[in-house]
Design goal:
With 302 residues, this protein is α+β, with helices and mostly antiparallel strands. Strand 2 and strand 3 form a beta hairpin. Helix content is 31%, strand content 28%. It contains six helices and 14 strands. The termini are far apart. Helix 2 crosses helix 3 and helix 3 packs parallel to helix 5.
Length: 302
């Protein structure tokens, strides 16, 4: 099975020595993110997020189906991930990797199990018709911090997505097109985002007096390969923590863990504002003539 090329011994020692001197190879500070770019497609629910050289495309889609027999009043919310050799030589077509499974699991914990989107809001007709919402995460490029980038893209896609307007008469469900009625946004209760905080040991591997207590945000792939440990923190824009997960590595002092959570929550609040600003910018672009105007402009362009 292909593997990502590991840094050499000299390269590893160079990166760790630079971190001891508070220097990162790209010149950023320890808590600085790479340039974050969020763009949306013409269709609702398509979000393309680029964090440095890491790029993730998320697309949301919905269809009407029958509910689960044991959850007659709940809709269906599913998250899937797709990776390809385009993102990294370590990925193979048709073969699931540990990273892909972990990514799906964390996104499921962050978005679905935290009740960010209540599945009751997807119910149309109890025991008969519900919306089945599918969130597909496409990994286009991997250069570190893949999970935070995917988390931002998934949240942006959910907030951007619109369900077709519907009406229910008796046991008949009518679905309206965009030209007939304004589509309906999803009922998001809160906006959780996942951030990874990495710690580093010194160049000789000892973690007590070196850089083990140095916390880095948005690590690149090379930094990720030499880190001593990682903590995943998911929280919403109000600072409410949804998830804390220690991703192996060296033991971490409790005070350092608490500091990691504080740093992550502070950064999540900033990222939430960036996502909201991108959504407002897209909404202003679409506001020219409403959805009918968008369809007419698209027809004219064709």
């Amino acid at each position: 099975m292909p593997r990502e090329a590991e840094p050499s011994i000299n390269e590893r020692a160079f990166i760790l020595q630079a971190l001891q001197e508070n220097i990162r190879l790209d010149g950023r500070s320890v808590d600085a993110y790479r340039p974050l770019e969020i763009t949306f497609g013409e269709d609702y629910g398509a979000a393309d997020v680029q964090l440095g050289k890491t790029r993730v495309l998320v697309r949301a889609s919905a269809s009407i189906t029958a509910p689960s027999p044991d959850r007659k009043f709940d809709g269906i919310f599913t998250i899937t991930t797709e990776v390809s050799p385009l993102a990294s030589p370590a990925f193979e077509v048709g073969r699931s990797t540990l990273l892909e499974s972990h990514l799906s699991h964390i996104l499921d914990l962050t978005l679905r199990r935290s009740s960010a989107l209540p599945t009751e809001s997807l119910c149309l007709l109890a025991s008969r018709s519900v919306w089945s919402l599918l969130l597909t995460v496409h990994i286009l490029a991997h250069d570190g911090s893949l999970l935070p980038c995917a988390s931002i893209a998934a949240l942006a896609a959910l907030a951007h997505f619109r369900l077709p307007a519907t009406s229910v008469r008796g046991e008949e469900v009518t679905v309206y097109g965009m030209a007939e009625r304004e589509p309906v946004p999803l009922s998001l209760l809160h906006w959780p985002i996942c951030v990874s905080v990495s710690t580093f040991a010194d160049s000789d591997g000892a973690g007590e007096n070196g850089a083990a207590d140095r916390l880095l945000l948005d690590v690149t792939l090379r930094e990720e390969q030499v880190c001593a440990g990682e903590v995943l923190v998911a929280a919403n824009g109000e600072g409410e923590v949804c998830l804390i997960q220690k991703m192996g590595g060296v033991p971490m002092d409790a005070l350092i863990l608490l500091r990691s959570v504080d740093v992550a929550v502070s950064k999540i609040k900033e990222l939430a504002q960036v996502v909201k600003a991108a959504l407002e910018l897209d909404a202003n672009k679409r506001d020219r003539g409403g959805n009918l105007g968008v369809e007419l402009r698209a027809a004219n362009e064709r």
